[in-house]
Amino acid sequence: MAKTHVKMKVNGAEVEGLVEPRTLLIHFLRENLNLTGAHIGCETSHCGACTVDIDGMSVKSCTMFAVQAEGADITTIEGVANADGTLSALQEGFRQMHGLQCGFCTPGMILRAHRLLQENPNPSEAEIRLGISGNLCRCTGYQNIVKAIQYAAAKINGTEFTEAAQ
Amino acid sequence: MNDQTPTREQREAQLEGMGCKRKRVEDVRFTQGKGNYVDDLKLPGMLHGDFVRSPYAHARVKSINTEAALKVPGVLAVLTAEELKGVNLAWMPTLAGDVQMVLADGKVLFQGQEVAFVVATDRYAADDGIQAVEVDYEELPVLIDPFKAMHRNAPVLREDIKDKMDGAHGPRKHHNHIFEWVVGDKDLTDAAFAKAEVTIKELISYHRTHPSPLETCQCVCSFDKIKGELSVWGTFQAPHVIRTVVSLIAKLPEHKIHVISPDIGGGFGNKVGAYPGYICAAVASIVTGKPVKWVEDRMENLTATSFARDYHMTAEIAATKAGKVTGLRVHVLADHGAFDACADPSKWPAGFFNIVTGSYDFPVAHLVVDGVYTNKAPGGVAYRCSFRVTEAAYCIERAMDILAQKLGMDPAELRLKNFVKPEQFPYHSALGWEYDSGDYHTAMKKAMETVKYAELRKEQAEKRAAFKRGETREIMGIGVSFFTEIVGAGPSKNCDILGIAMFDSCEIRLHPTGAGIARMGTKSQGQGHETTYAQIIATELGLPADNIMVEEGNTDTAPYGLGTYGSRSTPVAGAAIAMAARKIRAKAQMIAAYKLEVHEDDLEWDIDGFKVKGLPEKFLSMKDICWAAYNSVPPGMEPGLEAVSYYDPPNMTYPFGAYICVMDIDVDTGVYKVRRFYALDDCGTRINPMIIEGQVHGGLTEAFAIAMGQEIRYDEGGNVVTGSFLDFFMPTAVETPHWETGFTVTPSPHHPIGAKGVGESPNVGGVPAFSNAVNDAFSFLGSTHIQMPHDFWRNWEAAKRLGVTG
Q1: CATH 2.40.160.60 fits B8-35+504-647, yes or no
Q2: Does A51 share its domain with A102?
Q3: What domain range includes position A143?
Q4: Active-site residues of B: which are they?
Q5: Which among A95, A133, A143 has the least Cβ separation from residue B31?
Q6: Given CB 3.0 to 4.6 Å as the disulfide criterion, which of B62, B108, B311, B687 pairs with B54?
Q7: Residue in A with minimal Cα distance to B25
Q8: A84 found inside a domain
Q9: Does A148 touch chain B (CB under 8 A)?
Q10: Residue A155, SS3?
């Protein structure tokens, strides 16, 4: 099949490549750019394992063509850590609060939480739960993911995080 | 001593050993997208394979034409059963002693069955090829209802064995019958029922569901023709078993097969078995001389690679009027689908379902399980539970509630009255198990006190009265569940897979600077083995957990082990770690005695080294002993500090727990709200409380999903109607309840560190707690049992049936 040239910004760097018009963005990221952090869990945009940030929105990259991302500014999990290589507040929160187990949903979950905290810097538990409801996790039961996001929000806002009592 | 000398507490804390909420070492890579999952692997020249699958549940395959497919750009090969017959791989053995088609041989037996394998340069081209394969089918009568499987006129599903009336587990009664498994004493049980003051009988079905880890099953196979070696990277919960299976069925020498399980994105039992995709990818690599990747999509995962449950259990309990149980009788109709691909230890066709007497002191019991074939996907696997234990726990926990209802007794009180008592352990159950330890009464009472059980029952009584007065449309249910798990398979005397005893293993090698590596026969799929295993070593050997690297999944470097499922990692491999560490410590003690110039018997272990008894200042740390092991061992001793242990457990372990669920249901909409869920678990010694709690949260969420809606459902024509995440219930953060957890600690008396396993308990205990809550809510309206799953629609149907809504 004839290939199309695409160009976009990924994690701050200009990238380009040749793709079929039908190539999904997730495959372009994973196979052309070797950014394997975003995962494929369902191909039907239910699970959110493929979530990346595109032009300030959380997007499921398994249901978007690479050609639709022409000129876009994309952040993937590989671009989330602090500039000095340390874990970002969210990454640290997920580790501190045991917000992950198998790690397969984690990149998508962190990218979604990253955008959620831009949209709402101090979300309530209910707002967090609704805000991440497009991302499925089979391991954690979400409770510690909620805490991880609360931890990150507190760290970013410079407020004190106190783990809610059971 | 000076101020810089660390205190005992500081020395212990520095180790991050057992009992510590150590943060996970895995998270550093996972939170940065640097995990290494199968689909991340890219080899030079790698091809992609994908399946043509059957649209029919039962049909004759009259012809397969691959000509057009082979002309599709990028398509290099199409495998069918004919090609596989050339290498004797059209069929493969299952772990349950049956055989299974790798690719459709003459007919298809379930929707989604693998018919042909298209190999192409990339996944898109493979998909193009699939569209171009022409298959001519002739539809056959479909059998979906297991209760009709053994009717006289039921269609013959398995033509390959229709005249073979002797199956892998004894005689077959019908052409669609697989096995009959009988346990217990029929005569004594019949006698108990004959003189029973009270009996109950109920058909309790546990619907078909699916483990559906977020990462589907996948592999990359690469055959090196020059060396004659096959490398397989795959989502394998049991990599060594896969290597042995591949060696046996592909007739390749085992040392020339390299099986590697990299990071696995959840397993829950789905990744124990061997699937046609693995065989086809291996054959395709041999045929093409190139690496071949196979990645199933979600629909394929839900419809073809295994299922769980599908047990239809008729339970009867005999009891006295005072509520003392006197006998248990259970018949199970087990729907295995088209092939018996159950992943159980060889001698256990229904797994450990004979744990069905649960936590109760039944003097007699009798169990019969009949396995049957239907036109559904083959299986079934243990979805986050030990083999068929969650079915057993559901059966007895539901039945006990039904008995309580008949007796007019509180279900918690009935349980307390019948629990095996602490002084009865080790307890021999009527169906043949020896429970190692337990204190059920303490656990149950603690759970009841925590949720203020008596107050909840009072509130429920008031709400029921208000409902009857027409003041509310909401009903309240309190679900009580008390489970006993049986995990840690298993002792070689009764557990094997393909003849290999179900031991597990650990090899520890300490380096001169006091760091080391532990290699294991198990394989984490998210359980955090890299973190917790190192904690066991830290405590046993006095070296910081941070200094120990845990490696799993590479069959070339890891000692042989049976893998991770059935909560066996801590009970079996965890014991192997302790035993290997103790071998090292024994050698370390000899080295320490030599260096400190005392007799070994004059030394005693002290947190992180050996000290001379009575002379605490004469101390040699384990770190210093590691160094000495490489330069100044006693005369005649070999240098080095390493050990391996293959641990054959003397018994299973028996974790238990008390769960209570409080739920409100609107009878006009069927909408339920889980108001409260409390889970008390006793898994013996607790290695990492943070990870235990995480395991419980995850298992409860899966239990919630299963009980409240997660189902693989077929229509009458054999079409899967829940084949995507749109229809297959996967709870999001919004639906998932808030979990409260608690614990008691009753160490296993036979396990080196007293640990019992916990990962699967919440699924085993959670499902009956939810289902009992729903059933309890409806019970005052005259209902004894409502089948799972309890989604809104079924709740509303139940309300309608009971005449309380329009």
Answers
A1: no
A2: no
A3: 89-157
A4: 237, 384-385, 760
A5: A95
A6: B108
A7: A95
A8: no
A9: no
A10: helix
